[in-house]
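Running this now, will post back.
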Amino acid sequence: MPFKKALFPILFTLAIVFFSCQKTLDETLSKKEMTAFLIDLHQLDGALVAKGMGSVDDRGNVYYYNALLKKHGITKAQFDSTLAYYARNPKKFERIYTNVLEELTAMDGKVKSGFYHPVDSAKLRKSTESIWPLTANRYVFSKDSSINNLKFVVKSRPLAWNDRYTLSFLHRVGKSDKAKNKQTIIRIHYRNNTTDSIVCQTISDSLLRRYTINIIAKKQLSIDSVTGSIIDYKPAKSKFNALIDSIKLVRNYDALAQDSIRRVIHQIENPTIPTEIQKPTLRLRSKILLQRKNEKPE
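Update: finished.
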């Protein structure tokens, strides 16, 4: 395990950093004391590395480790004696080390679950995620390009009513590009085959311009896909000259409301007839059938 590989060199390097020329005492830490110290020691070393302050190997950090000894009420002599003891009894140290690993693993799980830093519900209300489906976000088109358009399709993702999709990119079209009606388009396709779309005209003046297009899923319907074309025109023959860079397609949504939105959309798309309406209808049908049965042909 990574923890196990890291702690052994830490201990022996600390011995070099901490130890003075004083005579060591025949006094060792208890199993509980040693376990608690090693847990804090590993966290300290990790914090120093994470902040770019080096590690236990850097003598400048000796003050932090001395402070750790002071926190646990341990002298250098005690630590020296304890290391010497466990060097002679590796199996005992291994049992201590197992406890240390279990505690560190439990702490790691708490960190990843947000135990120490709970998720801010206000931030979840303004969640974002990148949904750009293509591998590249930069394209250069010329008369020799094998393709003459840039289309995208976002499908099989958790898209929902009230989402806002933001398409942004840098775009430059050379003056030599003689195509007409240059435009970018983004569409929202709903499950009932209806579509919302926004079209943005692009300019051919050889200037690098930033375009940002926002479209909101306003219809209370399930969304099938989001599609679009950043280059949505047919360039004149041998006159294609365009650059597209820094493409981003971002979904802005309320992460806390997703379950509620799905329930609402399901109820809208799958309406049920209330029981109080169904019963009179059934009674009326029964009366009609009974009346027809009792009628005698003339």
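The domain at 127-252 is CATH 2.60.120.1310 (Jelly Rolls). More later if anyone needs it.
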